[in-house]
Amino acid sequence: MNLTNYHSHCLYCDGRADMETFVRFAISNGFTSYGVSSHAPLPFPTPWTMEWDRMDDYLSEFHRIKEKYVDQIEFYVGLEIDYLDDNSNPSISRFRELPLDYRIGSVHMLRNEWGNIVDVDVSPEVFRKIVDEQFSRDLDRVIRLYYSQQFRMLELGGFDILGHADKMHYNSMCYRPGLLDEPWYENLMIDYFSKIARSGYMVEINSKAYHLYGTFFPNERYFPLLKELGIPVMVNSDAHMPEKINAGRPEALAALKRAGFDSVMELHEGKWQAVPIN
Ligand SMILES: [Zn+2]
Ligand SMILES: [Zn+2]
């Protein structure tokens, strides 16, 4: 049934329950393989990222739970690591040296006109204010900046799974309906996914917002392109609450099938494997 999930937050970052509760939910929902991926530390504290002084606890808590439920589920540990700039991103040695099973690379933040860091992974209303007040209403510039961060992260590496590849598209579409049909944006997406394919990353189909916004990240319109480019995919719910671990998964798997995919990547016995979609 492809009941797996590798993008999940808990109390070590901004998740709403402890690690063990997520695992118990996963077991009771029939999941076979599950991973936690707290937001990795940034060079400054935030309400949504882990701090470095919690890393040892995160890893030992993982090992305790993994052992406790070893007969019921395969449990793995990862991190969702931000590309902030060349000094803080998945490629730096501090992250590479951690004993993790996998790493998710994501972009949530940009620098505004004055060089200040701005979180653009926000609601459409807040995003509109940010574009208007901090980027002189220049949506194109914000989009290009976002994807230039993504391109740089792809170049530097240090991660296995690209997190919510085009997440900003939803907020950008709210700002300017029709954006996804604009030729320059379409070409940008073709360049972007081609680069991802050449670099050999897996791409998650992030189903977190499907029931809220009716879209996956990346948007379903790119699924045939991902298939054509031979990009390996998996469905992740990016759950912050245990009851959301399966949110949007059946819909995402059905959408992948419609696009011609017949398998998704799952972690079994410590190795990523292509498993047929049931
Ligand atoms: Zn994220
Ligand atoms: Zn996340």
Q: Report the portion of residues in β strands.
A: 15-25%
Radius of gyration: 18 Å
How many E-type strands?
Answer: 11
Low-confidence stretches: none
CATH topology descriptor: TIM Barrel
Run of helices and strands: EHEHEHEEEHHEHHEHHEHEE
Strand arrangement in the largest pleated sheet:
1-2-3-4-7-8-9
Which geometry do the CA atoms define?
globular
CATH homologous group name: Metal-dependent hydrolases
Question: How many domains would you count in the coordinates?
Answer: 1
Category from helices, strands and their pairing? alpha/beta
Q: Name every ligand kind in the structure.
A: zinc ion
What's the average pLDDT? 98
**CATH architecture descriptor text:** Alpha-Beta Barrel
Helix count, DSSP H or I runs of 4 or more residues? 10
Main beta sheet, described?
Answer: 7 strands, parallel
CATH class, named Alpha Beta
Proportion in helices: 25-40%
Please give the alpha-carbon distance between the first and last residues.
Answer: 6 Å
